[in-house]
Design a protein that fits this description.
about 375 residues, oxidoreductase activity, alpha/beta, 2 domains, single chain, 6-stranded parallel β-sheet, Rossmann fold
Length: about 375
């Protein structure tokens, strides 16, 4: 690749706005086409962001200037759209999850390998300076050897703010598959692959209401558990507890704690590209009259903060450099395998071993500059 890489976006819904804002600001990327099942919606986004071409999925795939397709369709369409892009000889970046079933996701990766194109999978928050600064601190040994982790995402549910929330409670979503990719991608990037999971899930309401937008007051069905608790075991021997809920009166997002032999560290919200990282050291031996307050030590955040689309930029640069990109399809597949196994465990009550694995996830250099022209 020489010069800016031509990108085509498929899916002009809510999430496309932040992708377009960022991708149109990166010198190494040029958004040349937008497609949607409602072409007028693609046209509106194209006009807003100065994109020269718009239309349907077929228009994007048939555009010779499109080298990489960004798949922002709903989860149940991810595999179908990504597979068509691969068949057209395009690299693919897909929103999470990679797919809804292991067979389709595995076939997608095999087809991409055979076609000589790459697949990348959200979330790309793991490339953000918040998470990467925490990753460097752990690698430098500030908490010693990691032993166990705790994560939590608790909210009343996206139906309170999303104008079209039904898909977030349908098969392939719920808190497990909608929010789980952020937390488990981060943990796998830090600690390595997950070996097994056990889970429990609950669906307290079978129907919910839309609270905002033109369809406010309408009801929709809840198809999947709206609260899930997961126990995980990592290949490296660590273990973790994880809560993901759309039923909590307590709003608590982004809890990621890793506890090690020489300290405990609190990471930024994995759904953000920045945020504070702090750690504490052990108090030592308790003696009479000893204070139990612990000193929090801040980790300096290094790097440029942008947002969604950073994984696409890393992909095009990695392709040009002949190196692995960070948020690979293989990482996306392993996380999907973990989440589907947790879903199966919640249904059966069994501890399930994870068949897939993934290579170590490379770090992002401190001097990675999204706004530099490198191609």
């Amino acid at each position: 690749m020489t010069g800016p890489v031509g990108v085509g976006i498929v899916g002009a819904g809510v999430i496309s706005q932040t992708y377009l804002e960022n991708l149109t600001s990166f010198p190494d990327v040029k958004v040349v086409a937008i497609g949607d099942m409602i072409p007028e919606r693609a046209k509106a986004k194209a006009e807003e962001h100065g994109v020269p071409s718009w239309g349907t999925l077929e228009d994007v795939l048939g555009n010779p200037d499109v080298e990489l397709v960004v798949n922002l369709t709903i989860p149940e369409s991810h595999i179908a759209v990504s597979s068509q892009a691969v068949a057209a000889g395009k690299h693919v970046w897909t929103e999470k999850p990679l797919g809804l079933d292991r067979e389709g996701a595995r076939q997608l990766l095999q087809d991409a390998d055979a076609a000589g194109v790459r697949v990348g999978s959200a979330p790309d928050t793991i490339l953000g300076p918040g998470f990467q600064s925490a990753k460097r601190a752990i690698a430098e040994g500030v908490i010693g050897t990691p032993l166990f982790v705790q994560t939590a995402f608790q909210t009343q549910g996206p139906d309170l703010w999303h104008p079209e929330p039904a898909f977030l409670f349908a098969k392939g979503a719920g808190p497990l598959l909608d929010m789980g990719p952020y937390y488990f991608s981060a943990l796998v990037s830090l600690l390595g692959p997950i070996a097994g999971v056990a889970a429990r899930g609950s669906r307290f309401r079978t129907e919910r209401h839309i609270h905002t937008g033109p369809r406010a007051g309408e009801t929709f069905s809840v198809e999947v558990p709206s609260s899930v608790q997961v126990l995980s075991t990592f290949e490296g021997g660590q273990h973790g507890t994880h809560l993901l809920s759309f039923d909590s009166a307590l709003e608590r997002h982004g809890v990621v704690e890793i506890h090690g032999t020489e300290g405990s560290i609190v990471l930024p919200d994995p759904n953000r590209f920045d945020g504070p990282t702090r750690y504490v050291k052990p108090l030592g031996v308790f003696r009479d009259g000893m204070k139990t307050e612990q000193e929090w030590i801040d980790v300096e955040q290094q790097g440029t903060v942008v947002g969604r689309g950073l994984g696409v930029l890393d992909m095009v640069r990695a392709i040009a450099d002949g190196r692995p990109h960070v948020a690979t399809g293989e990482l996306g597949f392993h996380v999907l395998d973990v989440l589907l196994s947790a879903q199966d465990s919640a249904e059966t009550g069994q501890y399930l071993e994870i068949d897939s694995t993934v290579a170590p996830v490379p770090p992002v250099p401190v001097d990675f500059d999204p706004f530099a022209s490198t191609l």
